[in-house]
Specification:
By secondary structure, the chain is mainly α. It has 13 helices and three strands; from the N terminus they run H-H-H-H-H-H-H-H-E-E-E-H-H-H-H-H. The chain has two domains: 12-143, no CATH class; 147-282, no CATH class. A three-stranded antiparallel sheet has the order 1-2-3, covered by helices on one side. The N and C termini lie far apart (74 Å). One of its GO terms (cellular component) is plasma membrane.
Length: 309
């Protein structure tokens, strides 16, 4: 009788050790990139939120760690392994390109490609799909490409100037726009690059994206929140310009103080508007949670009441 010899399966500890060793190696190889990103976050106020982006992504992964563990304990098909290795190769290729052209954002993209590739290689497609929000959120820790910043900043300046002049004229103030300068009867207010609203837009994008990741809302509501990022950021920045212009018109000596306080209040106003959007969505698409059942829509509730009647 021929005996069948079974090979012992790889233990969980050995697999985990391999995964941690691979992750540690990648972190060490990207130490210079991490340090350079930290310098950008520390030295450029437009990206000061970057310190919190990796923390939020890790927190999201920790909350959904069950999917990672489940996928890690399952042997991945050869096609998944092949695609995962291909993603790792793409990540390393992006790193080489970033080094060659001296572009920090490109090196940052390679980090995200490697993270996604590792998740796919070790945990499978389902884990990558669940962790995709955390991977995409890491994009917000990277500085915008230089060729994209100036056109975006210039466009935001023009929009802020136009909206502010319209609001001031609606309030009855004799204001006109001359380029990115708001002309009042006895003063001129320049909408400088620092007042373009780019910093507000970048930070608010990170805040709303994090909220959309963690809030227990339907996908429809989360998508609407993301679509509201740019309008709210533009409106809030225009509000600051209008407040400063009104102060300059009526109390010129208060202009600098009002400018500083309005800048501090921008994020609070944006959060208030965001809360208003959530409140509106809750009333537009109400749901009723019942024990042991899924949320019921208004049509379902009316049907149940009709049957009981």
């Amino acid at each position: 009788m021929q005996q069948c010899r079974l090979e012992p399966p790889i233990s969980m500890s050995s697999s985990a050790l391999f995964a941690f060793a691979l992750l540690a190696t990648l972190l060490l190889s990207y130490a210079t990139v991490i340090v350079r990103l930290g310098e950008v976050w520390w030295g450029n106020a437009d990206y000061s939120h970057g310190f919190f982006v990796p923390v939020v992504s890790v927190a999201y992964m920790f909350i959904h760690r069950g999917v990672l563990i489940e996928g890690f304990n399952r042997k991945q098909p050869k096609t998944v392994v092949a695609v995962g290795i291909a993603m790792l190769c793409i990540g390393f290729l992006l790193r080489l390109v970033g080094i060659a052209v001296r572009a920090l954002p490109v090196e940052g993209y390679s980090v995200i490609a490697l993270v996604a590739g590792l998740i796919l290689l070790l945990c499978g497609w389902r884990a990558l799909w669940v962790m995709m929000p955390a991977c995409l959120f890491l994009l917000l820790m990277l500085p915008l490409p230089g060729g994209f910043v100036m056109p975006l900043r210039s466009g935001l300046q023009s929009v802020a100037t136009s909206i502010s002049v319209f609001a001031l004229q609606t309030l009855g103030l004799p204001a006109i726009a001359r380029g990115n300068v708001i002309v009042l009867p006895e003063a001129e207010i320049g909408v400088a690059e620092a007042c373009s609203g780019l910093r507000m837009l970048v930070a608010f994008t990170a805040l709303v994206s994090a909220l959309a990741m963690f809030v227990e809302r339907p996908l429809r509501d989360r998508a609407i929140l993301l679509l509201c990022i740019v309008p709210i950021a533009v409106i809030v920045n225009a509000w600051r310009v209008v407040v400063v212009a009104v102060a300059t018109y009526y109390r010129p000596g208060w202009a600098d103080t009002v400018h500083d306080w309005a800048g501090l209040g921008m994020m609070f106003l944006a959060i208030g508007l965001l809360w208003g959007v959530l409140w509106f969505l809750s009333n537009l698409f109400p749901t009723v949670a019942t024990s042991g059942s899924k949320n019921l829509t208004p049509n379902m509730i009316r049907s149940v009441k009709a049957e009981r009647a």
